[in-house]
Design brief:
The complex is a heterodimer of chains A (189) and B (181).
Chain A (H helix, E strand, L loop, with lengths): L2 H8 L2 H28 L19 E3 L16 E7 L2 E5 L4 E8 L6 E9 L5 E6 L7 E7 L10 E12 L9 E13 L1
Parallel strand pairs in A: 3-9
Antiparallel strand pairs in A: 1-7, 2-4, 3-4, 4-7, 5-6, 5-8, 8-9
Chain B lengths: L1 H12 L37 E7 L5 E3 L5 E3 L4 E3 L5 E3 L4 E6 L5 E9 L7 E4 L8 E4 L16 E9 L11 E9 L1
Antiparallel strand pairs in B: 1-6, 2-5, 3-4, 6-10, 7-9, 7-11, 8-10
The chains are: A alpha+beta (189), B mainly beta (181).
């Protein structure tokens, strides 16, 4: 093969090589980001507040038709709560919200903060929603999801409620706190 | 070769993209298409399980007493009031009451703070209870139509372990875990 034929056949070998190198670099970066996002990205845990949030839960509403019950009595330094709930929770990805039923009846002494937690098969727990302060006599049937807390897809998940109790006067977190296991979370579009 | 590399790169870059929502549109009289129909069962307002649980607790104040050889009594030439180290409390009670129309299991646990990792808890007045209690449904037996007779458990927490020098009064949390059936 003559030199002219060789030059005609190969065109601009330098330019093509650079293009391939750039594309390979982009490919490596894309693979790295994907691997990190799937296996190594850590979700920042939502810490339980030591003091009750100043803001009341915006989605909280008064409990209707509550039966008349005597206010519970709390021992000195102690506490007393009543919780009413259902174990089924539905999450709407379109609304970015959880639909649930959780009440802090009027007879409770303590304020509450409710966390909705998803439990994965390996036991990893992720807080996906957290209420503001829920005072006695109020219920919540919707909680806004924490943005970026978890990537969810349609289906069912195991969950639990973390229920934090707070002194109604000082706002300080109580020594005793609650956890409700067996929550069934259904995710829909 | 170039085409193969370019194709592979394009496919790999698409891995990092967020999945696109797919909308299926049915239109026109001469066209047909398939769309997925999803149904959910709503059991309505009646007949479901409603859980209502009361939790009451005392101040949970504990005092740790170090080993004491007692006080010397010069009359008897003996030490009196000797005691071993340990925790004591008279505000360590917990009560859990089930008003649900289903049984629940209540599990008690103690989580020491990072400053007191050696502190452990046991349950019952003598510390021999498991800390796990099954409470019957309030819709059965004496409790049915009688809220004052709701199933309940009343117990106490005991602490063990040397705290060393107590620098903070907050030594841990009690967790009441309710397991729904």
């Amino acid at each position: 093969m003559s030199g002219e034929e060789k030059g005609t056949t190969s065109g601009r070998p330098g330019g093509t090589g650079i293009l391939i190198a750039i594309l390979l670099l982009i490919t490596v970066i894309a693979v790295g980001v994907t691997v990190w996002a799937l296996f190594f990205r850590k979700t920042t845990p939502v810490l339980a507040p030591d003091y009750a949030p100043v803001e009341a839960e915006p989605n909280a509403v008064p409990i209707e038709d509550e039966p008349e019950e005597d206010k519970m009595e709390a021992a000195q330094g102690g506490g007393a709560v009543s919780m009413t709930y259902q174990k089924n929770v539905t999450i709407s990805l379109a609304d970015s919200a959880a639909k649930l039923m959780f009440q802090n009846p009027s007879k409770s002494v303590n304020d509450m903060v409710l966390q909705l937690i998803l439990v994965s098969a390996d036991g990893t727990e992720t807080v996906i929603a957290q209420s503001g302060t829920l005072k006695p006599g109020n219920k919540v049937e919707r909680l806004d999801l924490i943005e970026g807390a978890a990537a969810l897809s349609e289906g069912t998940y195991n969950g639990r409620f973390n229920v934090l109790y707070y002194d109604p006067d000082s706002g300080e977190k109580a020594i005793v706190n609650g956890s409700v296991e067996g929550i069934e979370v259904t995710v829909t579009q | 070769m170039t085409a193969v590399v370019l194709t592979a790169a394009a496919l790999t870059m698409s891995m990092g993209m967020t999945a696109l929502a797919v909308t299926t549109t049915i239109e026109g009289s001469n066209r047909s298409t398939k769309t997925q129909v999803t149904g959910y069962y709503d059991e309505g307002n009646g007949g479901g399980t409603v859980y209502k649980v009361d939790v009451e607790w005392e101040g949970m104040t504990f005092t740790y007493s170090a080993n004491s050889s007692g006080t010397w009594n010069p009359n008897t030439h003996d030490f009196e009031g000797a005691s071993e180290s340990g925790w004591s409390s008279n505000t360590n009670g917990i009560k859990i009451t089930n008003h649900s129309n289903a049984p629940i299991t209540a599990k008690l646990s103690f989580q020491p703070t990072s400053g007191y990792p050696d502190i452990t808890a046991s349950w019952g007045t003598d510390g021999t209870e498991s800390g796990e209690y099954t409470l019957a449904s309030a819709a059965e037996g004496n409790s049915f139509k009688s809220p004052d007779n709701a199933p309940f458990v009343e117990t106490a927490m005991q602490l063990a372990g040397d705290p060393g020098t107590i620098s903070s009064h907050y030594i841990g949390d009690v967790i009441v875990t309710l397991v729904t059936e």
